[in-house]
Amino acid sequence: MNAGLVADTGGLLRALACRSDGTPSWPAYTKALTEASVVIVPALVLSEVDYFLRLERPAMQRLVEEILDPGTTYELEAVVAGDLKRAMEIDVKFANLSLGLVDATVATVAERRKQYRVLTIDRAHFTALRVGPRYNQALTLVP
């Protein structure tokens, strides 16, 4: 198993997407998800995933069941008041990126949990972002 990672919306959706024959649509994303020692899912990401899966209720139900199953590597990460405050600081610091609350929260959770690998398709935002007290910690984008 690899190190843990924090799941962003697009990365999680790609990791879970399957073709009609059941094979992964995006094998590299699926592999990253299944090989991680822990997959941290910020609650705001789960809300956004639910929006994209609003017409795929069985898929969303399976995902929630997996996240709640203590036998999986998923960890649902509640977003607390301190996270929202820090997310807004990151959003202001990187105002030129137009991050938004969800991406800034993914960065905040990565920073707080010291899990700097992010499962994402959003290369533009997460490549430019830095976290940590001096904003000097880059995030590793997966895959």
What does this structure look like?
This protein has 143 residues and is an alpha/beta fold. The protein has a single domain (5-142), classed as Rossmann fold (3-Layer(aba) Sandwich). Helices cover 50% and strands 15% of the residues. It has seven helices and seven strands. It has helices at residues 9-16, 27-35, 43-52, 57-68, 81-93, 101-113, 123-128; strands at 5-7, 39-42, 74-77, 117-119, 130-131, 137-138, 140-142. The chain has a five-stranded parallel β-sheet, sandwiched between helices. Helix 1 (9-16) crosses helix 2 and helix 5 (81-93) packs across helix 6 (101-113).
Labels describing this entry:
Rossmann fold, two-stranded antiparallel sheet
Note poorly predicted spans.
Answer: none
> How many discrete domains?
1
Helix proportion of residues, in percent? 40-55%
Shape: globular
CATH superfamily: 5'-nuclease
CATH architecture annotation name = 3-Layer(aba) Sandwich
Distance between the termini: 14 Å
Give the CATH level 1 class. Alpha Beta
Q: Briefly note the structural class of the backbone.
A: alpha/beta
Largest sheet: 5 strands, parallel
User: Helical segment tally?
Assistant: 7
If you consult CATH, what is the topology?
Rossmann fold
Order of helices and strands: EHHEHHEHHEHEEE
Please tally the β strands and state the result. 7
Residue-averaged pLDDT, rounded?
A: 95
Give the strand order of the largest sheet, numbering strands 1, 2, ... along the chain: 3-2-1-4-7
> What Rg is obtained from the alpha carbons, in whole angstroms?
15 Å
Q: Work out the strand percent.
A: 5-15%
